[in-house]
Amino acid sequence: QLQLQESGPGLVKPSETLSLTCTVSGDSIAGSHYYWGWIRQPPGRGLEWIANIFYSGATYYNPSLKSRVAISVDTLRNQFSLTLPSVTAADTAVYYCARQTHWGFFDYWGQGSRVTVSS
Amino acid sequence: EIVMTQSPLSLPVTPGEPASISCTSSQNLQHTNGYNYLHWYLQKPGQSPQLLIYLGSDRASGVPDRFSGSGVGTDFTLKISRVEPEDVGVYYCMQGLQTPYTFGQGTKLEIK
Predict the structure, then answer these.
(1) Fewer CB atoms near the end CB (10 Å): N or C, chain A?
(2) What pLDDT band is residue A67 in, cutting at 50, 70 and 90?
(3) What percent of chain B clears pLDDT 90, i.e. is strictly above it?
(4) How near does any CA of chain B get to the CA of A14, in Å?
Protein backbone atom coordinates (compact mmCIF):
# COMPACT_ATOMS: atom_id res chain seq x y z
CA GLN A 1 0.00 0.00 0.00
CA LEU A 2 1.46 3.34 -1.03
CA GLN A 3 2.00 5.80 1.78
CA LEU A 4 3.31 9.35 1.83
CA GLN A 5 4.48 11.09 4.97
CA GLU A 6 5.35 14.74 5.28
CA SER A 7 7.94 15.94 7.75
CA GLY A 8 9.11 19.38 8.70
CA PRO A 9 8.94 22.12 11.32
CA GLY A 10 5.55 23.09 12.63
CA LEU A 11 6.65 26.65 13.29
CA VAL A 12 8.76 28.92 11.09
CA LYS A 13 9.70 32.53 11.76
CA PRO A 14 8.85 35.20 9.20
CA SER A 15 11.55 35.72 6.55
CA GLU A 16 13.05 32.29 7.25
CA THR A 17 13.03 29.26 4.96
CA LEU A 18 10.43 26.52 5.13
CA SER A 19 11.69 23.06 4.23
CA LEU A 20 9.42 20.06 3.97
CA THR A 21 10.17 16.47 3.00
CA CYS A 22 7.82 13.77 1.80
CA THR A 23 8.89 10.17 2.34
CA VAL A 24 7.29 7.64 0.02
CA SER A 25 6.82 4.01 0.99
CA GLY A 26 5.21 1.20 -0.95
CA ASP A 27 6.39 2.52 -4.31
CA SER A 28 9.67 3.67 -5.80
CA ILE A 29 9.92 7.21 -7.10
CA ALA A 30 12.77 6.21 -9.40
CA GLY A 31 11.53 5.01 -12.73
CA SER A 32 7.88 5.42 -11.84
CA HIS A 33 5.52 7.02 -14.29
CA TYR A 34 4.05 9.32 -11.70
CA TYR A 35 4.54 12.91 -10.70
CA TRP A 36 5.09 13.84 -7.09
CA GLY A 37 3.67 17.08 -5.83
CA TRP A 38 2.91 19.53 -3.08
CA ILE A 39 -0.47 21.13 -2.37
CA ARG A 40 -1.24 23.50 0.47
CA GLN A 41 -4.37 24.60 2.31
CA PRO A 42 -4.42 27.80 4.38
CA PRO A 43 -6.58 27.66 7.50
CA GLY A 44 -10.25 27.49 6.60
CA ARG A 45 -9.55 27.83 2.90
CA GLY A 46 -9.28 25.75 -0.25
CA LEU A 47 -6.52 23.84 -1.97
CA GLU A 48 -3.63 25.38 -3.87
CA TRP A 49 -1.26 23.35 -6.02
CA ILE A 50 2.35 24.41 -5.45
CA ALA A 51 4.68 22.25 -7.54
CA ASN A 52 5.34 18.83 -9.08
CA ILE A 53 8.43 16.84 -9.88
CA PHE A 54 9.07 13.80 -12.04
CA TYR A 55 11.68 11.22 -11.03
CA SER A 56 13.91 12.50 -13.81
CA GLY A 57 14.04 15.85 -12.09
CA ALA A 58 11.66 17.69 -14.39
CA THR A 59 9.82 20.30 -12.36
CA TYR A 60 6.57 22.21 -12.68
CA TYR A 61 5.63 25.21 -10.58
CA ASN A 62 2.61 27.33 -9.87
CA PRO A 63 3.48 30.76 -11.33
CA SER A 64 2.07 32.38 -8.21
CA LEU A 65 4.93 30.85 -6.22
CA LYS A 66 7.49 30.01 -8.89
CA SER A 67 9.92 32.76 -7.97
CA ARG A 68 10.08 31.54 -4.39
CA VAL A 69 9.64 27.79 -4.30
CA ALA A 70 11.91 24.88 -5.19
CA ILE A 71 11.07 21.19 -5.41
CA SER A 72 13.65 18.44 -5.50
CA VAL A 73 13.80 14.66 -5.47
CA ASP A 74 16.12 12.17 -3.79
CA THR A 75 15.51 8.82 -5.45
CA LEU A 76 17.97 7.00 -3.22
CA ARG A 77 16.01 7.94 -0.12
CA ASN A 78 12.69 7.77 -1.98
CA GLN A 79 11.87 11.29 -0.90
CA PHE A 80 10.99 14.59 -2.46
CA SER A 81 11.23 18.00 -0.84
CA LEU A 82 9.87 21.52 -0.94
CA THR A 83 11.78 24.66 -0.05
CA LEU A 84 10.05 27.99 0.41
CA PRO A 85 12.27 30.91 1.43
CA SER A 86 11.29 34.24 2.91
CA VAL A 87 8.03 32.99 4.39
CA THR A 88 5.30 35.30 5.61
CA ALA A 89 2.08 34.75 7.53
CA ALA A 90 0.40 34.08 4.19
CA ASP A 91 2.40 30.84 3.93
CA THR A 92 0.71 29.46 7.05
CA ALA A 93 -1.08 26.33 5.86
CA VAL A 94 -1.33 22.58 5.93
CA TYR A 95 1.09 21.27 3.33
CA TYR A 96 0.23 17.99 1.62
CA CYS A 97 2.42 15.84 -0.53
CA ALA A 98 0.71 13.66 -3.09
CA ARG A 99 1.23 11.39 -6.08
CA GLN A 100 -0.15 12.57 -9.39
CA THR A 101 -0.93 10.36 -12.36
CA HIS A 102 -0.38 11.37 -15.96
CA TRP A 103 -4.16 11.84 -16.14
CA GLY A 104 -3.71 14.77 -13.80
CA PHE A 105 -5.37 13.51 -10.65
CA PHE A 106 -3.75 13.06 -7.26
CA ASP A 107 -4.51 9.52 -6.16
CA TYR A 108 -2.53 9.25 -2.92
CA TRP A 109 -2.07 11.99 -0.34
CA GLY A 110 -0.03 12.36 2.80
CA GLN A 111 -1.74 13.23 6.07
CA GLY A 112 -0.53 16.81 5.86
CA SER A 113 2.02 18.90 7.73
CA ARG A 114 0.72 21.93 9.55
CA VAL A 115 3.05 24.91 9.24
CA THR A 116 2.60 28.16 11.12
CA VAL A 117 4.62 31.23 10.25
CA SER A 118 4.98 33.34 13.35
CA SER A 119 7.62 35.06 15.39
CA GLU B 1 -4.88 29.87 -15.44
CA ILE B 2 -8.05 27.78 -15.57
CA VAL B 3 -10.60 29.00 -13.04
CA MET B 4 -12.84 26.40 -11.42
CA THR B 5 -16.20 27.52 -10.02
CA GLN B 6 -18.39 25.34 -7.83
CA SER B 7 -21.97 25.71 -6.72
CA PRO B 8 -23.47 25.64 -4.27
CA LEU B 9 -20.81 26.42 -1.69
CA SER B 10 -22.97 25.06 1.11
CA LEU B 11 -25.22 22.03 0.79
CA PRO B 12 -27.41 20.87 3.67
CA VAL B 13 -28.91 17.47 2.89
CA THR B 14 -31.24 15.09 4.67
CA PRO B 15 -29.86 11.54 4.92
CA GLY B 16 -31.24 9.34 2.18
CA GLU B 17 -31.88 12.29 -0.10
CA PRO B 18 -29.89 12.99 -3.28
CA ALA B 19 -27.32 15.76 -3.64
CA SER B 20 -25.71 17.45 -6.61
CA ILE B 21 -22.70 19.72 -6.97
CA SER B 22 -21.87 21.70 -10.07
CA CYS B 23 -18.38 22.58 -11.29
CA THR B 24 -17.67 24.91 -14.19
CA SER B 25 -14.27 25.53 -15.72
CA SER B 26 -13.17 28.66 -17.57
CA GLN B 27 -11.62 26.51 -20.31
CA ASN B 28 -12.48 23.28 -22.04
CA LEU B 29 -11.10 20.36 -20.04
CA GLN B 30 -11.47 17.79 -22.78
CA HIS B 31 -8.08 16.55 -23.90
CA THR B 32 -7.39 15.63 -27.51
CA ASN B 33 -7.56 12.01 -26.34
CA GLY B 34 -11.24 12.52 -25.60
CA TYR B 35 -10.98 12.36 -21.84
CA ASN B 36 -12.10 15.19 -19.60
CA TYR B 37 -9.39 16.04 -17.11
CA LEU B 38 -11.81 16.90 -14.32
CA HIS B 39 -11.52 15.20 -10.96
CA TRP B 40 -13.48 15.24 -7.72
CA TYR B 41 -12.20 14.97 -4.17
CA LEU B 42 -13.81 14.76 -0.76
CA GLN B 43 -12.07 16.18 2.27
CA LYS B 44 -13.67 14.77 5.38
CA PRO B 45 -13.29 16.77 8.59
CA GLY B 46 -9.72 16.65 9.86
CA GLN B 47 -8.53 14.50 6.96
CA SER B 48 -6.59 14.81 3.74
CA PRO B 49 -8.52 15.06 0.50
CA GLN B 50 -9.40 11.71 -1.02
CA LEU B 51 -10.01 11.00 -4.67
CA LEU B 52 -13.63 10.25 -5.50
CA ILE B 53 -14.03 10.58 -9.26
CA TYR B 54 -11.39 10.93 -11.95
CA LEU B 55 -11.63 11.83 -15.61
CA GLY B 56 -15.08 13.22 -15.09
CA SER B 57 -16.93 9.98 -14.41
CA ASP B 58 -14.70 7.14 -13.22
CA ARG B 59 -15.06 6.18 -9.57
CA ALA B 60 -11.84 5.73 -7.65
CA SER B 61 -11.16 2.41 -5.98
CA GLY B 62 -13.41 1.80 -2.99
CA VAL B 63 -15.79 4.68 -3.72
CA PRO B 64 -19.44 3.66 -3.24
CA ASP B 65 -21.58 3.55 -6.35
CA ARG B 66 -23.93 6.18 -4.91
CA PHE B 67 -21.32 8.66 -6.14
CA SER B 68 -21.34 9.49 -9.83
CA GLY B 69 -19.74 12.10 -12.03
CA SER B 70 -20.79 13.46 -15.37
CA GLY B 71 -20.13 16.29 -17.75
CA VAL B 72 -17.97 17.30 -20.65
CA GLY B 73 -15.97 20.32 -21.71
CA THR B 74 -16.62 23.03 -19.16
CA ASP B 75 -19.62 21.81 -17.17
CA PHE B 76 -19.47 18.96 -14.72
CA THR B 77 -21.64 17.50 -11.98
CA LEU B 78 -21.06 15.28 -8.99
CA LYS B 79 -24.13 13.44 -7.77
CA ILE B 80 -24.78 11.46 -4.64
CA SER B 81 -27.85 9.30 -5.11
CA ARG B 82 -28.58 8.89 -1.39
CA VAL B 83 -26.54 10.87 1.09
CA GLU B 84 -25.14 9.01 4.05
CA PRO B 85 -23.90 10.64 7.29
CA GLU B 86 -20.32 9.69 6.42
CA ASP B 87 -20.50 11.82 3.25
CA VAL B 88 -20.11 15.06 5.21
CA GLY B 89 -17.13 17.17 4.31
CA VAL B 90 -15.94 19.52 1.62
CA TYR B 91 -16.08 18.46 -2.02
CA TYR B 92 -13.59 19.90 -4.49
CA CYS B 93 -13.38 19.70 -8.22
CA MET B 94 -9.98 20.03 -9.81
CA GLN B 95 -8.69 20.39 -13.33
CA GLY B 96 -5.69 18.26 -14.24
CA LEU B 97 -5.37 19.37 -17.83
CA GLN B 98 -2.70 22.02 -17.53
CA THR B 99 -0.51 23.71 -14.99
CA PRO B 100 -1.16 25.44 -12.75
CA TYR B 101 -3.55 22.73 -11.61
CA THR B 102 -6.49 24.44 -9.97
CA PHE B 103 -9.30 23.53 -7.60
CA GLY B 104 -12.79 24.83 -7.10
CA GLN B 105 -13.60 26.75 -3.93
CA GLY B 106 -15.15 23.71 -2.32
CA THR B 107 -18.71 22.72 -1.46
CA LYS B 108 -19.42 21.96 2.16
CA LEU B 109 -21.96 19.17 2.53
CA GLU B 110 -23.64 18.92 5.90
CA ILE B 111 -26.38 16.73 7.24
CA LYS B 112 -29.66 18.40 8.16
Answers:
(1) N
(2) confident
(3) 100
(4) 26
